[in-house]
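Researcher: Let's do a round of design. I'm pasting the structure tokens now; please hold your answer until I've finished.
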């Protein structure tokens, strides 16, 4: 496996391909983000009720979408491999850090009460795919970020069991189309089994959170019907 200690942002692919990504992505898949917001806000409020304080939150790879009530957290950190879009205005309690979650060295030693990853796991693929190795590394780093009693919420699109093998077979071709022609980040959808295997390998306690399936998906800036694009959505709650 490649040494990712000093990884930088990839040379190709960016959410910047869409003007005002945070606004447009919500308009393309409103059902998805309504559910994401409801689940995150419920966890934020539960934390306040149980602990008596406002949580520190880190949103990893969310491209600045921030699908939750920004008034609840004490502090918000957005960790992304891309620079903050000029059109995005952050609240006073938020900071944007350009960093790769696959790096061995995190930019600070802070711990967070709630870690959020929405639509991130399938973008952990790189030029040579390496999705399973990178997933394991990502989860190890998430574990280091979690404060005692904290939780991580993963929202992810997953593919049917057979689809992982097809992606691996054609990855050298379709990854070039994604990054060169569509100017989109590398992507390789995971199966539920692949995610569960990675979580079990590092002893994460996790449970599935109810998530209603939607009829329209986002793909490289376009709205695609679920009849054409065979994916489903999951929410996983992790606790170290």
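Researcher: That's everything. Go ahead.
Model: Designed sequence:
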């Amino acid at each position: 496996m490649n040494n990712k200690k000093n990884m930088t942002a990839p040379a190709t692919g960016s959410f910047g391909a869409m003007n005002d990504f945070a606004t447009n992505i919500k308009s393309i898949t409103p059902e998805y983000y309504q559910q994401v917001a409801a689940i995150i806000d419920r966890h934020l409020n539960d934390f306040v009720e149980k602990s008596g304080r406002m949580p520190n939150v880190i949103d990893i790879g969310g491209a600045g979408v921030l699908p939750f009530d920004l008034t609840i957290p004490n502090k918000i950190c957005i960790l992304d491999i891309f620079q903050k879009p000029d059109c995005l205005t952050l609240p006073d309690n938020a900071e944007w850090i350009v960093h790769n979650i696959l790096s061995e060295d995190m930019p600070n030693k802070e711990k967070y009460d709630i870690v959020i990853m929405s639509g991130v796991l399938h973008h952990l693929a790189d030029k040579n795919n390496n999705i399973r190795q990178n997933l394991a590394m990502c989860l190890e780093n998430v574990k280091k970020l979690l404060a005692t009693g904290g939780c991580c919420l993963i929202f992810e699109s997953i593919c049917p069991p057979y689809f992982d093998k097809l992606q691996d077979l054609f990855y050298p071709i379709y990854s070039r189309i994604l990054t060169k022609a569509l100017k989109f980040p590398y992507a390789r959808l995971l199966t539920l089994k692949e995610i569960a295997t990675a979580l079990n390998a590092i002893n994460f306690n996790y449970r599935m959170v109810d998530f209603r399936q939607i009829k329209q998906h986002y793909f490289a800036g376009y709205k695609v019907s679920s009849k054409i694009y065979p994916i489903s959505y999951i929410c996983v709650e992790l606790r170290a």
